[in-house]
Amino acid sequence: MVPSFSIVIPSYSRPGQLAECLRALSRLEYPRDRFEVIVVDDGGDRPLDEVIAPFESNLTLTLLRQANAGPAALPATPGQRARGVTSSRSRTTTVCPSRAG
């Protein structure tokens, strides 16, 4: 059986980098029903709907929005929504925030 997983992408006012990341994920050679992508908009100044729209037909995408709280606040929100997390055999969940810059 092919494992399921969730990819959580925190984003704050970086639409170009987000589009590049989603483009790379859309090229993955992995069953689309076995992974999901959760984008967390951390209160950026530009809505991300138009950034993720071109990828919705190729990826299972969820967009979550929150008031700006920084990367430390991200694990609780996506962890409650991620399908891959609920079926994880690991005792920990790791959320890797994008590097600043």
Protein described:
There is one protein chain. The chain has a single domain, classed as Spore Coat Polysaccharide Biosynthesis Protein SpsA, Chain A. A three-stranded parallel β-sheet has the order 1-2-3. Helices cover 26% and strands 19% of the residues. With 101 residues, the protein is α/β, with parallel strands linked by helices. The termini are far apart. The protein is built from four helices and three strands; from the N terminus they run E-H-E-H-E-H-H. It has helices at 15-26, 49-52, 76-81, 83-86; strands at residues 5-11, 35-41, 61-65. Helix 2 (49-52) links the parallel strand 2 (35-41) and strand 3. 21% of the residues are buried.
Quick description:
By secondary structure, this protein is an alpha/beta fold.
- Please work out how many helical segments DSSP would assign: 4
CATH fold name, please?
Spore Coat Polysaccharide Biosynthesis Protein SpsA, Chain A
Q: Name the poorly predicted regions.
A: 84-92, 97-101
- Strand content is 15-25%
CATH architecture: Alpha-Beta Complex
Mean pLDDT: 79
Shape: globular
Number of strands: 3
Percent in helix = 25-40%
Gyration radius (Cα, Å) is: 13 Å
At the fourth level of CATH, the homologous superfamily is: Spore Coat Polysaccharide Biosynthesis Protein SpsA, Chain A
Domain module tally: 1
Instruction: Calculate the terminal CA-CA distance, rounded to whole Å.
Output: 39 Å
| Biggest β-sheet strands, sense, barrel | 3 strands, parallel
CATH class call: Alpha Beta
Order of helices and strands: EHEHEHH
